[in-house]
Amino acid sequence: MASDISSTLAEGRTSASSAKSTRREAETAEFAQAVLAGLARRPRSIPSRFLYDAVGSALFEDITRLKEYYPTRTETALLETYGAAIARLAGDVDILVEFGSGSSRKTRLLIDALDGLDTYIPIDVSESFLTEAARRLEAEHDGLTVKPLVGDFTRTRHLAGAPRGQKLGFFSGSTIGNLTHEEARDFLVNAAHLLGRNSAFLIGVDLKKSLDILLPAYDDDDGVTASFSLNMLARINRELDGDFDIGSFAHRAVYNDAKGRIEIYLESLTEQTVQVRARRFSFDKGERIHTENSHKYSVPEFQALASSSGWRPVEAWTDDDRLFSLHLLRCA
Ligand code: SAH
Ligand code: AVI
């Protein structure tokens, strides 16, 4: 009997670890495809989700603690102040689904405010970070089932293993701002299908503001954001047999007023040739790779986007300095 159980457990472990290595291989293949295509096109660009391997996720956590980076502490304060009101307006919730959950630190405030929550489904592309955050959260909350889903939230078409029940979506940190308006609309339309009829959705959205506040948040004095950006090149070296000289690229953050977004680039400081998976890419001095956008919205701008994407705005909360907003939406 004991050996039956242990062999079943061992088989379970084997299939779980082989699923994990298949997933890793698929992620590396996608990364390779995105990098090789992105370095060959003009302007050069690599999608921002590839910033988040284990190193990138840890660096992002460091960013959230910077004095210059106001979004995390402001959103946390909004959740502390309005958590009870959010829970009341959200109504009965059985399942909380979080997109780009990261450390799930802010989620604790929402979980504590929601009565009778049964299941938490965090979705994130950064596998080891997600697994560890989910394990910690489950250990802290008796009776809460945590079902982490590894993957790209823009391409999640069903919630594998989710029980039936009323869902609340949570998309914190203004990660929606990392999507273009078109991508954000597609994401919201898909989320409406995923979360289902009459579901609610709580989304943290960074507000438009003065460049005195905005620019340092994306280019801090200690160079943590620069390390986060440059990790894209370090990851290429680690995973794709690249030979980027990290010191000969610089992090650049600029505000594009017409598009209402911070744009982040890696700029070559010299004329140089780089090799990735045996393909050569030449850079002129000053040539850039676009790695990230971070769109900023006024409250009416975001409400208009949500309304055109299958969601009805219910309430929006902002801090007194109007740095950040939290939007509660209902599936239309
Ligand atoms: N919500 C957290 C983390 C924000 S950082 C907070 O507010 O602090 C953005 C998170 O989204 C990271 O954990 C990153 O791994 C994840 N992420 C970014 N793009 C993603 C994508 N396309 N699919 C799934 N996860 C993604
Ligand atoms: C996760 N995301 C919302 C962050 C942002 O503010 O756009 C990522 C980030 N990039 C540099 N600093 C923070």
UniProtKB/TrEMBL annotation:
<dbReference type="GO" id="GO:0032259">
    <property type="term" value="P:methylation"/>
</dbReference>
<keyword id="KW-0808">Transferase</keyword>
<feature type="region of interest" description="Disordered">
    <location>
        <begin position="1"/>
        <end position="25"/>
    </location>
</feature>
<dbReference type="InterPro" id="IPR019257">
    <property type="entry name" value="MeTrfase_dom"/>
</dbReference>
<dbReference type="GO" id="GO:0008168">
    <property type="term" value="F:methyltransferase activity"/>
</dbReference>
<protein>
    <recommendedName>
        <fullName>Histidine-specific methyltransferase SAM-dependent domain-containing protein</fullName>
    </recommendedName>
</protein>
<feature type="domain" description="Histidine-specific methyltransferase SAM-dependent">
    <location>
        <begin position="31"/>
        <end position="330"/>
    </location>
</feature>
<dbReference type="InterPro" id="IPR029063">
    <property type="entry name" value="SAM-dependent_MTases_sf"/>
</dbReference>
<dbReference type="Pfam" id="PF10017">
    <property type="entry name" value="Methyltransf_33"/>
</dbReference>
<keyword id="KW-0489">Methyltransferase</keyword>
<dbReference type="InterPro" id="IPR035094">
    <property type="entry name" value="EgtD"/>
</dbReference>
<dbReference type="InterPro" id="IPR051128">
    <property type="entry name" value="EgtD_Methyltrsf_superfamily"/>
</dbReference>
<dbReference type="InterPro" id="IPR017804">
    <property type="entry name" value="MeTrfase_EgtD-like"/>
</dbReference>
